[in-house]
Design brief:
The chain is an alpha/beta fold. Helix content is 37%, strand content 13%.
């Protein structure tokens, strides 16, 4: 689950429409997952394509793979890791070409599209009670499990304590609202010194959450119409776009610079940063004091939560071996220990006692905020085939507003109309 989860996979449904994959799935020996009639003692190799370890956790994934292979000597796992930005396009290509891995990563926003297309194998014989129920249920359809949750994460407010102290500004608290954050950001911004008070991506993923924080809904209750052409929707657009060039760098300032916001915070030039808990590890060596808080809301709290999962290809010839790996990667004690030690998102397990170590695992000190933010969650809207287009439409509109090329009063109603057409 990388930041902030731009969803690319929904287009696969269009490409796969009409394909029948059910006949391609074969079972096998629980140890080898081999073909019918094969030698049950012959070791097999299953392939696993992922994005979850890209960037900073490749070695952590390797630790889990080696532990699995030690416990399952008849199975080898061949790993391919890809950047999140490239992953879903490559996955789509592999599915169409018939070269998809036995096991691969998906995420909640595109689960429905893949399941409806017949891409995912049904997963039998796995005890789903070991997972948080809401996460396991998210990847089941009509009572059948089609993927196993591998992690969840959320977005919180990171802040540089040293910058707050130097400016004499009180740290973010649980009762902060947008108004409090705006006041602090203005007090902390020093453009001459290259210090900015705030950074929040101007994107669809931040917008639907901000609409919820303002007390509104992105879609109607029945999911058939856009609901963000409303006072909360307009307020959310203003909240994001009015930061640009005032308390936050403009898009042009960061153009061409990879991980611009990450570097800005890591260099001690950013006071507040809206991003995900997956960034904890990259700040382990920061030479300044920092912490996190639950994101402020306008009229209410609403935090973004993302979930990743592992699926098995319906065309895999090693279904049972693949299921063993999927279960291990999503629920084993080794996985839990590695994730917690690395600050690598959160395991989806139901046993909360196994997560206690997370709270005292080092910076940030206020790790409790990760769990506190789950008390009020804004789930990402998911509309199927047109998901990517909807996200692009909203992000493009916000970008135009931030650049001064359109007004909020022009762009938000027009974008709502465009989204209505996608929902129709």
């Amino acid at each position: 689950m990388k930041t902030n989860h731009t969803k690319l996979a929904s287009a696969v449904v269009v490409v796969l429409a009409g394909l029948s994959l059910a006949a391609c799935s074969t079972g096998g020996d629980p140890q080898t997952g081999g073909n019918s009639g094969g030698d049950s003692t012959e070791p097999v190799t299953i392939t696993y394509t992922n994005f979850i370890s890209s960037g900073a956790n490749e070695a952590n994934l390797d630790t889990i793979v080696k532990a699995f292979e030690d416990e399952n000597p008849g199975i080898k796992v061949e790993v391919t890791t890809m950047p999140y930005a490239d992953y879903f396009t490559a996955l789509q290509t592999d599915i169409v070409a018939g070269t998809v891995a036995d096991v691969f990563d998906i995420e909640y926003a595109n689960y429905g599209a893949y399941q409806a297309s017949g891409v995912l194998a049904a997963i039998d014989g796995v005890d789903t009670s070991v997972y948080q129920s809401s996460l396991a249920e998210a990847y089941a359809t009509d009572g059948t499990q089609y993927a196993l949750p591998s992690s969840f994460s959320n977005v919180v407010l990171f802040y540089n304590k040293d910058l707050f102290d130097a400016a004499g500004v009180a740290y973010p608290s649980d009762d902060w609202t947008w108004a409090d954050e705006k006041a602090a950001a203005e007090a902390l911004t020093n453009q001459e010194a290259g210090v900015w008070g705030d950074y929040q991506p101007i994107s669809y993923n931040e917008y639907y959450k901000a609409v919820a924080q303002a007390g509104g809904e992105f879609l109607s209750a029945d999911g058939k119409t856009a609901a963000f052409n409303s006072d909360p929707g307009l307020a959310a657009a203003a909240w994001l776009t009015e930061k640009s060039g005032t308390v936050m760098p403009t898009a042009e300032m960061g153009a061409g610079t990879a991980d611009f916001d990450t570097n800005l915070f890591a260099d001690g030039k950013l006071a507040m940063w809206h991003t995900g808990i997956w960034m904890f590890g990259s700040l382990a060596e920061a030479d300044f004091a920092w912490d996190i808080a639950v994101e402020p809301g306008d009229t209410q709290k609403a935090s973004a939560m993302f979930s990743n999962a592992i699926a098995i290809s319906a065309t895999s010839k090693h279904q049972e071996a693949a299921a063993k790996w999927a279960a291990y990667m999503t629920s084993s004690d080794t996985m839990v220990d590695v994730r917690l030690a690395a600050g690598w998102e959160l395991p989806p397990i139901a046993d909360q006692s196994k997560l206690d170590a997370y709270l005292t695992a080092g910076a940030p000190a206020n790790r409790q905020a990760v769990f506190d933010s789950l008390k009020a969650v804004a789930l990402a809207p998911s509309i199927g085939d047109n998901q990517t287009q909807m996200q692009d439409d909203v992000t493009n509109a916000l970008t135009e507003i931030a650049a001064g090329r359109q007004t909020i009063a022009e762009a938000i109603p027009a974008t709502a109309t465009a989204v209505d057409a996608l929902l129709g």
